[in-house]
User: Fold HTH gntR-type domain-containing protein from Bordetella genomosp. 9.
Amino acid sequence: MDIKPPATIPFVLYERIRQMIIDGTLAPGQPLREQELERRFGTSRSPIREALRLLQLNGLATHQQRRGFRVVLYTEREIAQIYLLRGELESYAMREVARCDDVEPLLSSLRDACERLTARDPLRDAASHLSIMRDAFLHIVEFVQNPPLAEAVKRLNERCEPLRYNLSRQGADVGALAGYLRRILQALERRDFDGAAAARRECARWILPLVVRAYAAQLNDAQPAR
Assistant:
């Protein structure tokens, strides 16, 4: 499920540690030692532990007996599983649009997303490109009103956040994203739902090697510090 606890001390800590994982301040595989986090945030161990459990539930941290918590460290296979599965689920949502009576609100939203992508330089603002694509695909998922599907995609998106941020930080050329979204929009406009789904899968296969290479570069950069 999508973990959204109230704004308690553990949740505030969770959000701060989460952001440090996403932006690479806490490197993949780095130990999340409770004592160090206590000192960093000036709080007691109990809320730190609760925050770490929330991170584990959302897939951003792992826990092993006698080794404690660590920032999640993905293998290449795990990255492929996450990205390709998300692509399949979002492709399914595009086929489900066929069941919707009035798709114009969705098409209008996607047209706006395409315009915003076109207006941005992908080399200078890769982060915005990636965020716009994430939100556009999520809007399609939410539009078909399938709560289990939306929940699954949101959980996968959360696990993608550190990978997405790192991809933009490594300076990857994500300019092709605009073309994929345009193809998906055009397919939906002509009610070619299978064509839209195929374009989404192709997009997932295209971006996957970029994500894997960027993550490998991040691990290489962080190696001396670990």
User: Anything to note?
Assistant: The first helix runs from residue 9 to 22. The two ends are 32 Å apart (CA to CA). The chain is about 70% helix and 5% strand. The mean pLDDT is 93.
